[in-house]
Backbone:
């Protein structure tokens, strides 16, 4: 009777708490046979509206990427590459300062496998993912595929696998709304438009280089003088401009065709490629600064020039090709940088980029041919053209370190931390300021007796920008360049330096309670529940449990914008014992501490698994952030809360819990 009553009580408790267990992702699965040894495992996810689940290829340092793990692959089968994904979204996260890749509304994964042991009939797969909206949830779904009957089953625990054909979910239809496709299309359009605008202005920058600018009046004069009528001259110049566009668009198409629409997108976070791009941009910068010229073989230009004498449309096309070859020493670095950036976006971005670049390059030739009188208003060629080229060289050098920073962040080597990166940028833009003011001269500069007003203003602008960067060495956020330097936590001194009382010295750090560490805003926080609770009993203070995650965006928002309030910070430092439990902490538990959850049936193998199971089991919740105030008997002092961006509301919640503790 007692057991029956207990079971009834637990059932009621489960039903009462179920409302807080959030399951925004529903999975179905099926298996397809390709050959006797090859199969495709297919996973379909329906994601609730406004939630998003991170891709396998989401950038490090942001939300947790999806992981596909095989439980019984050894000596039985092997995965062929990574799982193929359906369409994803890309969005810059200004909290983690990385571009994240995620699914909305629905997702599909296709994993190819090759069987090596014909006697094995089961494939056991675990999907581990993070899904976020106002809160974040760490998801874990386990599947078993039967190779013999081609059935699939979602299971709670691999140790108790029973495959039953009637449980096959392959017939479940995906009813995800179509809004995900439209949102993805809008995001893609915005990304391509950005590439086009950058490329267009890059084309204008290329126009103002010594290799291209002098050719505008020469080429337009050639068309107007050689053509029998004004209309013919305009027509030829128009064809010339179209030819320039065709040449560069073909170049973008070749990049897309050779590397694939999305191949370079996946490589954009690859360490080797980021280092290669860094070296490439440094070479380009050196060329622009006057160390050497990047030139195509003269024989190419001579052959193309001879073809240009043929006349007609073919001759004009070869004239445009001759322009591209002759001006390569100036346009090559710009085109190369643009292609690197565009190709890393994937899809048709290289084509769009080359169209924008060539359009800006071609427009002056067409417009001046239509209105030759405008040629008289053009400034004469001179040393200012080399100034433009050098200016671009400094920019290339600064951007190069972004790629090196990406590689360092992926490897977590802490070689190019935030302070080092900013110091390099301060040096680069400081040197550019001195150059514009005439204090530094480079090999191809003309003698400078005075500087123009335009050059003076540009020098003042770059000097202002250099001064703006300096406080970043002491922890200033530098929102104008958000996304370029490494994030704030990737720093020699994450808590700042030179900031007076905000910094904890090593001697003060040694006085921290056992098991405590400094958290956000130097708040003392425990990362182990038992240690934190024991300390709270020593000092007779209530406990605030902070269920959080390293990759939880809204957890960081709460810390940055709510906990930073002086009243709240004072409470967290003085009136409560803070226990921050990270549910995505991947460190494995000792073998003796691993267990199978009685609530979910899942294996608890990591510290993060342990705290996630603790949150689900005790508080019937699985989202982060999630805050609980308890007394020393581990009883709730008030109702727990989740993401609460309203400072006054969160403050009132804290104060009510502390008041109940004192009663």
Residues:
């Amino acid at each position: 009777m007692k057991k029956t009553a207990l079971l009834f009580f637990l059932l009621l408790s489960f039903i009462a708490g179920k409302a807080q267990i959030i399951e925004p992702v529903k999975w179905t699965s099926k298996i397809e046979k390709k050959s006797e040894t090859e199969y495709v495992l297919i996973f379909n996810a329906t994601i609730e509206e406004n939630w998003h689940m991170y891709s396998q290829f989401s950038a490090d340092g942001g939300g947790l990427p999806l992981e596909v793990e095989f439980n019984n692959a050894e000596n039985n089968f092997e995965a062929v590459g990574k799982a193929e994904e359906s369409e994803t979204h890309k969005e810059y996260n200004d909290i983690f300062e990385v571009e994240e890749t995620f699914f909305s509304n629905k997702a599909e994964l296709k994993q190819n496998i090759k069987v090596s042991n014909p006697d094995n009939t089961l494939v056991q797969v675990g999907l581990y993912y993070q899904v976020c909206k106002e809160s974040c949830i760490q998801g874990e779904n386990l599947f078993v595929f039967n190779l013999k009957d081609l059935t699939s089953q979602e299971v709670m625990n691999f140790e108790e696998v029973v495959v039953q054909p009637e449980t096959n979910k392959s017939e479940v239809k995906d009813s995800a709304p179509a809004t995900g496709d439209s949102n993805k299309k809008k995001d893609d359009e915005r990304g391509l438009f950005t590439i086009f605008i950058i490329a267009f202005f890059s084309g204008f920058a290329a126009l103002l280089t010594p290799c291209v600018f002098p050719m505008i009046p020469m080429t337009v004069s050639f068309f107007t003088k050689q053509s029998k009528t004004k209309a013919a001259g305009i027509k030829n110049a128009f064809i010339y401009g179209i030819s320039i566009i065709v040449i560069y668009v073909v170049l973008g198409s070749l990049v897309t065709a050779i590397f694939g629409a999305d191949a370079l997108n996946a490589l954009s976070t690859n360490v080797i490629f980021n280092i290669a791009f860094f070296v490439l941009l440094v070479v380009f910068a050196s060329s622009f600064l006057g160390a050497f010229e990047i030139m195509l073989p003269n024989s190419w230009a001579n052959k193309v020039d001879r073809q240009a004498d043929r006349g007609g449309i073919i001759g004009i096309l070869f004239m445009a090709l001759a322009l591209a070859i002759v001006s390569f020493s100036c346009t090559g670095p710009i085109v190369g940088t643009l292609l690197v950036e565009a190709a890393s976006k994937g899809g048709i971005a290289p084509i769009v980029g080359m169209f924008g670049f060539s359009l800006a390059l071609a427009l002056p030739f067409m417009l001046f041919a239509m209105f030759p009188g405008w040629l008289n208003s053009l400034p004469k060629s001179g040393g200012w053209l080399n100034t433009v080229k050098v200016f671009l060289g400094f920019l290339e050098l600064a951007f190069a370190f972004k790629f090196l920073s990406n590689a360092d962040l992926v490897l977590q080597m802490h070689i190019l931390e935030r302070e080092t990166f900013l110091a390099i940028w301060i040096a680069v833009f400081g040197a550019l300021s001195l150059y514009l003011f005439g204090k530094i001269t480079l090999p191809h500069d003309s003698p400078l007796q005075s500087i123009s007003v335009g050059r003076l203003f540009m020098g003042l602008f770059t000097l202002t920008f250099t001064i703006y960067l300096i406080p970043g060495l002491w922890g200033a956020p530098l929102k104008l360049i958000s996304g370029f330097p490494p994030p704030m936590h990737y720093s020699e001194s994450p808590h700042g330096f030179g900031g007076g009382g905000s910094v904890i010295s090593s001697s003060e750090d040694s006085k921290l309670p056992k098991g405590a560490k400094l958290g956000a805003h130097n708040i003392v926080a425990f990362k182990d529940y038992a240690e934190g609770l024991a300390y709270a009993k020593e000092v007779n203070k209530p406990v605030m449990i902070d269920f959080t995650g390293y990759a939880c965006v809204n957890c960081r928002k709460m810390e940055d914008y709510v906990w930073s309030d002086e009243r709240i910070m004072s409470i967290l430092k003085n009136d409560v014992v803070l226990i921050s439990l990270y549910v995505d902490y991947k460190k494995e538990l000792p073998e003796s501490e691993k267990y199978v959850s009685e609530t979910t049936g899942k294996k608890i193998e990591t510290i993060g698994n342990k705290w996630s199971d603790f949150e689900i089991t005790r508080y019937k919740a699985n989202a982060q952030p999630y805050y609980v105030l308890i007394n020393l008997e581990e009883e709730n002092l008030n109702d727990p809360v989740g993401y609460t961006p309203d400072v006054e509301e969160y403050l009132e919640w804290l104060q009510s819990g502390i008041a109940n503790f004192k009663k």
